[in-house]
Structure formats: structure tokens, C-alpha cells
Amino acid sequence: MEYQTLTQALDAFDRYQKTLSAYRHAMGVLSLDAVTAAPEGSWEGRGKTMEVLSGVVYDLTVGKENGVLFDYLQSHLEELTELQKRELEQARKEYDRMQRIPAQEYIRYNVLLNEADAVWHKAKAENDFASFCPILEQIVEFNRKFAGYYNPDLPAYDALLNEYEEGMNMETLDKFFARLRDTIVPLIEKIRRVPQIDDSFLHRHFPVEEQRKFSDYLMELMGLNRAYCGIGETEHPFTTNFGNRDVRITTHYFENDLASSMYSVIHEGGHALYELGCDDCYNYTLLSGGVSMGIHESQSRFYENIIGRSPAFVHAIFPYLQEHFPRQLEGVTEEMFYRAVNKAQPSLIRTEADELTYCLHVMVRYEIEKQLIGGTLEVKDVPAVWNRLYREYLGIDVPSDREGCLQDSHWSGGSIGYFPSYALGSAYGAQMLAVMERELGDVYSFVAQGNLEPITQWLKEHIHRYACLKKPGDLFREVCGEFDPKYYTDYLEKKFSRLYGV
Amino acid sequence: MEYQTLTQALDAFDRYQKTLSAYRHAMGVLSLDAVTAAPEGSWEGRGKTMEVLSGVVYDLTVGKENGVLFDYLQSHLEELTELQKRELEQARKEYDRMQRIPAQEYIRYNVLLNEADAVWHKAKAENDFASFCPILEQIVEFNRKFAGYYNPDLPAYDALLNEYEEGMNMETLDKFFARLRDTIVPLIEKIRRVPQIDDSFLHRHFPVEEQRKFSDYLMELMGLNRAYCGIGETEHPFTTNFGNRDVRITTHYFENDLASSMYSVIHEGGHALYELGCDDCYNYTLLSGGVSMGIHESQSRFYENIIGRSPAFVHAIFPYLQEHFPRQLEGVTEEMFYRAVNKAQPSLIRTEADELTYCLHVMVRYEIEKQLIGGTLEVKDVPAVWNRLYREYLGIDVPSDREGCLQDSHWSGGSIGYFPSYALGSAYGAQMLAVMERELGDVYSFVAQGNLEPITQWLKEHIHRYACLKKPGDLFREVCGEFDPKYYTDYLEKKFSRLYGV
């Protein structure tokens, strides 16, 4: 169709974005339901629905009339607001990209991912990599092909990295990870030689019911508005959202591990604060939600580690813990608790890893993904390489694939290139802390009083409220200047050498 | 488009049904999420999504090409299977009906219902009918208008009744309810004059965790395959499903009431067995799922009352109860338990009502709906009429709207004309029992052994497997002959005069 006026075109553009948002919402809730409440055998029917809906989304996105609309808007660029310009840029990007992906492949991929989730769950439960291998092969194949559609000018893995962190590439990451290793590995070596921290009391019996109440307490402490933020229980904790007024975090309770769910809730709570803090104007647009996985993880890992694993935070929550877990924490002091939740020790499970060794887990995945997408590693060989790298980086043996390469949900969810954002986010967070402290003074003095408000306000003001308005690199630079991993390595070195006296 | 071959047309018809099923699935999961997990403040965003999706469903249903397709198929009727003929009949019916509903009204109604759910929840919690009144007025207005679209030749309320039970009308129901009243009211009168049953032990403290396990036990006893049937927790118990491999029941736990959730699970479990028992060929078609609310309630209330409140059933589950609730049931015999769960006593809440007084609750709603739709009652006067009828039919005073006209979710969900199916279903079930006993012998001998398999098999064979292939009246008649409420009144009279010795 032809547009007579800009108003008419903007109306059409608005409708287009609202319609896409609606489908994303519906598909998002179907996926959420799949992992929270749906019975196991329901995947087939959900697959058919996803097939239909993703087909519609594909058609909507590549619709010829979009080209006409976007061209018309482009020709009136000077009359558009900053917001509209960015929406247009984003719409054009998705349009161009989707046009390079054949419809049938797009739909087949979505159907595959729905199936993969069920297969992965079963494979993990049964410690059976062989049953997951064929579907992971297909996912890798799709990702290699899609990388070419995303950006044919880049090496495939760089194109995938860009999906999660615009502007990121292997060159930067290789250097970043090398630098992290140079800091972390010697530190771990030193720590190995001194007396270890006793965290056994964290593994006493903590009833799920009590842990659920503790989650409520933590969410309240973090200022998560429950009218807009729910909490559920899943195998693997995550955050998802539909606009800034419907955010869901999930956790997983283990009766013999208090810290596991505690730090899942704080981590996912950090993601949730980001989503809840986006300005209203981005709802129902293509700019809705957090801008990149790296920035997202900078928020979640900021709350989890920089705040949540600080002496000040432990000080703030310790009275609650003593009141609600009196028997389990008998004889445990604040200091002991702080040390226990920071115990650094090479381990098997990434999501349970301590702050210091965490990035080594990410590096294992990064190496494997790089090779899988680069074509130098076959899926069937993933367990062997995984186990070898865990030995090399973390110095430990992996006893089973369930605790090894089957532990994460990312690959079955189609997310290849996501993992590095965890490490990047951690480093972003440390640099943000430095800026925040220049502006707010000693943030830990608020934290110690259980007052996270000034911190969340600062992050909202500088990061959250912009949603996807600014590109992640620009957003970060405007707040923190050039990215420099030194903030993070300094932070780790200072914290852990003090903690262990090394 | 023109169809060249029947195969081509049938493919298009298949695609049409699959597409509609996908949207229904997505919208169903959005609604389910709304009442199970979504945060309170998320309703607005969900509303926008529902608006978009229901607009698409409307367009899909009234699409001009459907007329061409259905005409083509109609002209090849003799070449269609029985299944295809019924699908076509159903598709044509929905097409004709939807064409009479203006698009904007259809969408606005769906948006309204999404909002109404949140408003009703709040109004009920705050015992504030006034805040619910304006939205109920709109729902009633929509229903009066829609009744004319559904069937302009019928009185409005008859047209609505037909939505839930094809062929039903006020004339039949007036007679049916009069007959029920003639049986029930004198029985209640007699019971009032004899010593009452002590059910106080059902109101001891039953921890939710233990009740959850009890639900699992009941679902297993009923043969509900958990791979295809989940259980959740909501304000008001219900069953929903997406094909025959994804059924969800919900319940509500009260720590001081064992029977409440117990009979909700059995009731919803009866609905679930119906859905799970539908043959696979109906999935993703317009004939998917139970055929009418009356037949559906015949299954749920059959399990809840005819089976679940029988001495044989109590005998089967009593060892479990004794083992898991030893303190609460100290000194309680099987006979005492059986009598307690059958205590007949006029009460306020329909879903908690005993089997004997239950239909009187339905009659109150029937009278009010008839008058609301007939135009002889205004929404603002509903509380007064409700309270007057509770006094008249059940002999009790309603202390608050929360325990009165705000108690059910049906009206906020747009379901006007649904309630009579509960009573009809109860009566259908009693007649089915008579036929079943002729064919299987004493069904309670199976029940007493905890073996419900022959009963479920019989119902599957005669009712469940047909999904919507047969119209409800035909389905019932083929199994039971002409509907005769005498089976139900005889059943009630026998059971309750024996129980109370009156």
C-alpha cells in the first residue's frame, strides 16, 4: 500500500510493532508454561502451535508491505523522534535478516527447539548424552547456517556473538578471557595452598517451604514489585518478561543447599529489576526489554556477586537468616556466613560456581562453541572435550555428562554465543561499581542497612530506563567510558586475596 | 481461491483447523497463566495481546475464502468421511455465527473479559460488589447482544443455554428444576429434624504439603496419566486442555478443610479423564474436546459424587488417609468419614456444597441469569435477589457478597448459561450409572478395591472417545435412551434417606 501521510505510516508502524509484540508474548508464555507447569507429554501439541505462530511471525516480519513502510519512514527520517528512528533501525534490521532466512528453515528451527527442550530434560535426567546428540547436531547446523544469514561478512561464531552482544567478536573475547585466566588461575593456585573455608552449614536441611519464604524476603529487599514480578520453580533458573509490567523469575530449591536458590533469586532478581526499570514508552515496541545479554548479565551478576556476596549484604540479611533458620545456623556468625557463600573452589556446575572460578566455566563453553561453529569439533566429541577442558582450566574430573556438558539449558534452547555474556557482564558490573561509587560514595554503607534503593535507582537512571534505545556498546561507554577488564580483575584479586589472606 | 481437487480443499480445511487450534492453544495458555502464575499487574499487557490474537481469530473465522471452501466441500459431501462431515458442519456453524458478530464487538468482548478477571478477583477479595458491577453490566449487555447473533430465532437466554448444551432451553430446565426442588426441599426438611452428622474432624489442620501429596494419590487412583495431566493451584478450581495430551486441572487448598480440595481434585479429574479419553483423530480439529458442558459435568460430578462420595470409594482410600493423617483422623472410622463427606446442610458456597443441596445453588444462579438476560433484573440488584433466593431455596442468610454473588468466576469469565449444566450433568450421571450397572454389574465392587479402571473404560468407550463427533443429545440418547431426571431424584432420595434414616 501507499502511504499518504506520515501519521498514517506511523500508525501502521505502531500496529506492526504491537502485533509482533503480541505474538512474542504468546510464544513466550507458551515457552514459560512448557518449563513451569505443562505436563511432560504436551510438547508435541505445543510444537504444532509454535509451528503455526512462528510461521505467522515470519510472514509478518518479511511482509513486502514492510519494505514500503520502512522506505516511506526512512524518507521522513528528520521528522521522526529519536525513539522512532531507533525503532525503524531495529525493524529494518530484523526485516533484512529475516528475509535472508528461508521460511521453512525458520519454522523448522522453532519446532526443533520446542522438541529439544523435552529431549534435553530427559537426557540430563538419564545422563544420556547420546540421546541428545542428534538434536544438538541439528541445532549447531542451524546456527552455523543462521550465522550466515545474520551477517554473511563475519566469521560464523562472530555473527552469533553479535546476536547477544552487538559488536562483540572472538578477537576481543580471546584477549578478555586470556586476561581473566592470567588473574584467576594463579589466584586459585594460591588459594589451594591455604586452609579452606567451611561451608558445611549451608548444606544442612533447609525445608523448601522456608526457602520459598526466604525468596519472598529477598525479592522484597531488592525492591521487586510483586504486582509486576512473579516467581516460579524450574529445573534451571531464568528470567523472562512481557513488557515492563510482567516479569517472571524462576529458581530451583535444593533442601540441602541454602545458597543455591538464594543466589539464583538475587541473580534473576537483577535481571528482573532491569526489565521492570525500562521506561513505559518501550512497551509493545521492538525496543522493549534489556538491550543485550552482556548488559543483562551485568545487572544480574552485579546483584548476585558485587552486592549479594558482599559483607554488607550478609550483614543486612543475617538477622532474617538467624530468625528463620535458627537450628541450621546455630553457632554460625555473620563472618562465617560471608566466607561460606564466597568459598572459592573448582567445581562441576556453572550455576553453582563461586564468583572466582565462574568465568572458567564460561571459558570451557566458549572454547567448545567456537570450535563447534568453526567446524573443528563434532557434537559427538563434545563430552570428551568438555571433560578435558574442565581438567585443564579447573583441575577437576567430570564424573558424568549430567554434571558435565548436559548441565545447561542454553544449547537445547538454541543459544550458542550466549555464554560469553556472563563473563562480560561480570566485568561490566565491576566497572559500573567504580563509576557508581564515584557518584554515590560508599554504596556498601546503604547495602549494610538493607537499603538497595539508591543502587537500583542509579542503575535505572543510567541503564534500565533506556531499554533498547541505545546500542549496548554506546550505553556502556556513556556511563563507564571504554570497557576495561582491569576493573574486574582488580576487584577479584582484591576480594579473594583478602578473603583467603593470600 | 478456487479448488481444483477435493484433496486440495481438504488440505486447506486441515490447515484452517490447525491454525485455529494453534490460536486457541496460545490464548488458552495465556488465560491459564493469568490465573496460575502471572503477577497481578500484568493484565494490561495480556489484554493487548488478547486483543491482537482475538482479532486474528475473528479474521480467520470470517475469512471470505472460508465460504468458498465450505461450499466446495459441501458439494462433495458424499465423498467425505463422517468425521469430515461433522468438522464441516461445525466450521460452517462457527463461520455463520461469527459473521453475525461485528469484529469490533468480538475483540472488545475478549479484552473486557481479560480485564474482568482481575476486577472480579479484587472485588471478591475486598467484598466490594460495587466495583464489579459496571463490568458485569457490560458482560451482561454483551451476552444479550451475542445471544441474538448466536441464534436470532430463540429467546436470548435459550440462545445462551445452547452455547453450553445444544438443544437445551428454559422450558426443559424449568420443569427439570421444579422436579428437583420437589425432591430436594422436602428431603432437606426431613433431614433438618434429625440429628446432624459430625464432620468437625474434616476441619482439623491438614498441612498443604500433605494435601498436595493426597492430590497426587487421588490422581493416580483415578488413572490420570501425569505425563499428559498437570495440576495447579488457583482461586477457583477448573480444568482446561489443549488436545488430549495436555490437560490441566487446578485445585485450591484450605488448611482447615480436607474435603474441599479432595473433591475438587476428583471433580476436575473427571473432566480431565473425559479430555484425555478423546480419540487422537480429534486433536487440532474443530471437534477436539468434550462436546458440551452438561456432558462434561456429567463426568466430573459422576466421579465427584456417585463414585467419590460412595461408601466403596471411602473404603478404598481410607487406609491412605489413616496413614497420612493419623493425628487428624484419630478415632475416625470409615463410616464416620463417609457420613462426614456426605453431610447435607444448606450452606453459602456452591463449590463446597454437599451433593443434596448443590442443585439449589445452581437454581439461584439460573433464576438470576434468566432475569438478567430476559431484562427483568438489573445487575445492581443482583446481590439483593441473590440473598433473597438463598433464603427462599436454602433457608439461609448471606452475610456478604464475597460469600454470595461474588463467589463464582463464571460471570466474570463471560459464562452466562453455564450453571444449569452442573445440575444437568449430575442428572445425566445418575442415568449413566444405571446403564453402566446393567452392563458391568455392581460397579461399587470395583470401586471398593480402588479399581476405577472398568468404570473409566466404560465411559471412555461410550462417551469420551467421541469428543465432539456426536451432538450432546444424540450422544446421551445412544448410551442412555431418553433423558429422565427420575434416575437422579431416585438416586438422591435413596442415598440421603438411608444416610439420615428419614
Rounded to the nearest angstrom, the radius of gyration of chain A is: 23 Å
Estimate the strand proportion of chain A.
under 5%
Q: What is the 3D shape of chain A? A: globular
Separation of termini of chain A?
70 Å
Tally of contiguous helical segments of chain A? 20
Q: Give the helix level of chain A as a range of percent.
A: 55-70%
The largest pleated sheet of chain A is described as: 3 strands, mixed
Total strands of chain A: the figure is: 3
Number of domains of chain A: 2
User: Can you tell me the CATH architecture of the largest domain in chain A?
Assistant: Orthogonal Bundle
Classify the oligomer: homodimer
Work out the largest interface and the residue count of each chain: A-B, 44 and 44 residues
User: SSE string of chain A, helix = H, strand = E?
Assistant: HHHHHHHHHEEEHHHHHHHHHHH
Structural class of chain A: mainly alpha
CATH class of the largest domain in chain A, anyone? Mainly Alpha
CATH topology group of the largest domain in chain A = Neurolysin, domain 3
How much is the average pLDDT of chain A? 96
Which stretches of chain A are poorly predicted, pLDDT < 50 over at least 5 residues?
A: none
Strand order of the largest sheet of chain A: 1-3-2
